[in-house]
Amino acid sequence: MRKLNGTVTIIVTMLSLLLGSPNVQASAQASKCHCTVDPYTKTYDAKEGVVKTWYGGKRSWACTYTCTTPQGEAKIIGRHKKTYVGSDNGLWGICDGLEYKEEYNMYSGDFVYMLDRMVGLDPKDSTSPDLVKFSNDFCR
């Protein structure tokens, strides 16, 4: 039985090496652009910006991204739209490329997420259709 377990471990290890991890595969397909965002440029669509529902809410927002491309720098408005389940813990409607950390809030008596730092993003991997289109057009 011990020999069989060792064989299974070797087979699983070989398969994982052959198939590669998702991070390795994604980095091989990265575009030639990098975007950063100013978190204070976020705006909500006046018509459907924040809609509360019995199960959570719907958000529609836009952020201004500054992207570095092979042709130079460009400012892009990235529109986002998402439906959420549950209550807003601070991660609803954030701009792509920002990192948040969980902190305890004495006032609410719960953990909430607060902006920690701006890390940037590859526009190809964005949740914004505008940034994905930009990447396809200018970042090959």
UniProtKB/TrEMBL annotation:
Keyword annotations from UniProtKB, A to Z: Signal
Query: In its keyword annotation, does this UniProt entry include Signal?
Result: yes
* Origin: domain of life: Bacteria
Give the signal peptide, or none: 1-26
Q: What is this protein called?
A: Secreted protein
